[in-house]
Amino acid sequence: MNMSSRARRRAVPLLAATAFFAQPALADAPTNNGAAQVAITLTGDNGGACVLDHDSAAAGPITFTVTNESAPAISELELLSDSRILGEKENLAPGLPASSFTVTLDGGDYRIYCPGAAEDTVAFTVTGESKQRAQSAIGDLLDEGTAGYANYVEGMVGAMVTASERLAAKVDEGDVEGAKEAYAQARPFYERIEPDVEGFVLPGTDPTDNSGNLDYLIDMRASNLDPAVGWHGFHAVERDLFEKGEITDETKAYAAELVKNVKMLADLSGGIEYRPEDLANGAAALLEEVQSGKISGEEEAYSHIDLVDFAANIEGAHQAFAFLEPGLKRIDPDVAETIAQRFADVQTMLEDYRDPDALGGYKIYDAELRKSDAVKLSRAIQMLQEPLSRIAEKVATAS
Amino acid sequence: MRGQDDKPAGLSRRGLFLGAAALGGTIATAGQAAETGKVAPDAMPDPDQRRYAFYGTGPQAGIATPPQQHLMAMAFDLTGTDPRALQVLLARWSASIGLMMEGQPVGPAEPDRDTATALETGEALGLGPAGLTVTVGLGPRVFSKEMGLAAKAPPHLRPLADLPSDALRPEISGGDLSLQACVDDPQVAYHAVRILARIAKRTGAATVRWTQLGFGRASAGAGQETPRNLFGYRDGTRNITTPDQFAQHVWANDGPDWQHGGTYQVMRRIEMHIENWDNAQVSHQNDVFGRHKLTGAPLTGENEFDTPDFKAKNAQGESVIPTHAHIRLSAHETNDGIRILRRGYNFTGGLNAVGRLDAGLFFISYQNDPAHFEALQRRLGASDLLNEYISHTGSGLFWVPPAAPKGSYIGAPLFAGV
To answer: Which one, out of A116, A188, A209, B35, has a CA that is 20 to 30 A from the CA of A376?
Structure first.
């Protein structure tokens, strides 16, 4: 990968010539089935140890086979280059069959990181240059993902402007039923990308003052009402349409202000660049939103279209994950598969709640449905939250 | 003094097992040869530092070990039918339980990386092991054809039969896996179960079904003073305590070798109608149990441990211990010698849906055949005087595999050749 590490590596056998045969671990790992084979054993000795049978290998595909013999405190292992995770194995525990992962590495210095071991980092050296695309190209895959996700967010923001304009138009016409439909159609766009766009304030305002906080002005609700700033945005319109069942001049003012603020948000959020961990954190934040706002029925307190928002949160989280997936699959295919499966489970579950006749296409989440189904919905999300909350660390570009 | 490591070398498997059974009665003696769940509690000066060994041969800890003060029980549903997912879960649970029973965290509470989430939640840091035992049970569905584990099933594991007076609520009954965490500091048990539930979700293998917190032990182990249930009566006076009794009634050794030292765990959430009970005359309460409230003595005796005389009549020719008294219907003398180990806890859940105290006994029993519990409860459920004051609302049956040796995990033999 770089000259200095190779030069240093070449010097080792000369300096350590006498020790060479006494420490067979210094020999390059043997090759089998086209990949260098490195065995890693986790033991409970000396406060937990992570022992490699070879600490170097020739560039190219390398298979690390991990056996946890007796180290209950070590449950995962990572291959690192600088601070980047290139490969990982989770769910290691004493007594389980050996498990392996294969990565393609270029020459350079790497580290095996075994959190929980007394000495948790072991050096690993790769010599030469790989003829195949090396694992460091994960960075390219993740970069492609973040660029794709930025496009997705931009598309959602644009669609949200259009949908809120349609809502304002229906409100202006005094068409309560039409406005209700337009409301339900406008909601999902914000709910898909909320964590990416919730940090903006009106230019020149104090970030701690809700009167300039765009997330408050667009998406405040009864449960986070700031009396000094009052009602604004989507839920102010929702309250008039669904609770009062009428459109007043005040409703029209709410809708017009909403359009203005959504356009402002579109301006401010254009051209954001994302890091891979931002996508991971955003997806996790959307699942928190589901748990805290939707399953409780708090978000759509008047229209009860919480399941529309629920589906939108899930879709947004799934998109963020999907853009990371090609890179994540190479880092930790097991966890990528687990999360993909859990998303599929949630999508399958949501199918049962579809109702083409209901506002927004999902069953109305009334008190009765909440009572009978909230536990089931929450459990399915919990099963997704735990594995998903861990991927930021795996894809992070910063240390 | 603690831990499987100190076990004398060269003992045969059978020898070890008998040694484990021998523990039943004399668990609290300091300096005894180490066995699973074996410890010398009285030799530990600080109760927070009391600890039991997780790894070893013989039965799991938390059965013959003396009941601690607090309970946290949790049951799980498997999410699928992949035996590998269960295998990973049992292995990760075992490793984590082993650490927590030593008072160790399961990982860094504050990881180095900013982007990391921590498995270790931190609330038990510095509290010590506090005598924690976590006992793992496997429900009938684990051994289903769909899981591919039917051939490994313990001989008597199946769903419990429907029993008289059952008022079971499905959402707090059943389950495919059980955890019984017992401890002297409830925060330590809560932490343990919380961590294990997170691992279930992280691995994707299982989801939480129900949970129960118990705040006071309601059964005595060997050498312990008999505690009282929330009716105010001593519970467990005639409990199983001696090694012979454990060998005869608790350890299920009729399956293949690898199952020896296992046992069947019954969990029942028994709600007490506290307000009604409190307004009943004490003489009636005594008749319901067949014992005196204050001393715990049978109505035919003077002292708690006097053997009840079920034949005794009063001057009017009526049985002194009434025909439907609880101790008569549940006594081994009247049940073909059937005995079970009771290891229950009192519980409260605040107020129930109609504004009465939600409280009762979280009954846990261990026996070498669940039919033994069924036989007793069939009789009690049909005609126990106590039925007027209780409802069985939750129920579960699990097989508790033997302990795991170091380097392995609970239930490992299930997956050999699968």
So the answer is: A188
Q: Which helix (H) or strand (E) holds A349?
A: helix A333-351
Q: What is the pLDDT of residues B299-333, one digit of tens each?
A: 999 999 999 999 999 999 999 999 999 999 999 99
CB A364: neighbour CB atoms within 10 A?
18
**A residues 64-103 closer than 8 Å to B (CB):** 69-70, 72-73, 75, 91, 93-96
Same domain, B71 and B174: yes
In the stretch 84-103 of chain B, residues with CB closer than 8 A to chain A read: 87-88, 91-92, 94-96, 98-99
- Structural domains in chain A, CATH included, are 3-133 (2.60.40.420), 139-162+170-201+268-395 (1.20.1420.20)
Residue A118 amino acid letter: A
| CB atoms B407 and A383 under 8 Å | no
Same domain, B392 and B411: no
Q: Is residue B111 part of a domain?
A: no
Q: Are residues B392 and B405 in the same domain?
A: no
Asked if ipTM goes beyond 0.95, one says no
Percent of chain A with pLDDT over 90: 78
CA neighbor of A326 nearest in space, from A104, A147, A134, A141: A141
Element (H, E) at A217: helix A214-219
Q: Residue B282: give the domain boundaries.
A: 274-396
Over the stretch A178-206, which tens digit does the pLDDT of each residue have?
Answer: 999 999 999 999 999 999 888 899 888 88
B328 and B216 belong to one structural domain:
no
User: Which residue of A75, A120, A335 to mutate against B (max B Cβ within 10 Å)?
Assistant: A75
Q: Identify the helix (H) or strand (E) that includes residue B92.
A: helix B83-101
Decide if B26 is inside a domain. Answer: yes
Per-residue pLDDT averaged across A274-296, rounded? 93
Please state, in angstroms and rounded to a whole number, the distance separating the CA atoms of residues B352 and B350: 7
Beta bridge partners of A78: A88, A113
Contact assignment for B95 to A75 by CB distance below 8 Å? yes
For residue A74, what is the nearest residue in chain B, using CA coordinates?
Answer: B107
Q: Which of B197, B87, B136, B406 is nearest to A92 (CA)?
A: B87
CB < 8 Å to B401, chain A: none
Do B372 and B335 fall within a single domain? Answer: yes
C-beta of residue A120 within 8 angstroms of C-beta of residue A113: yes
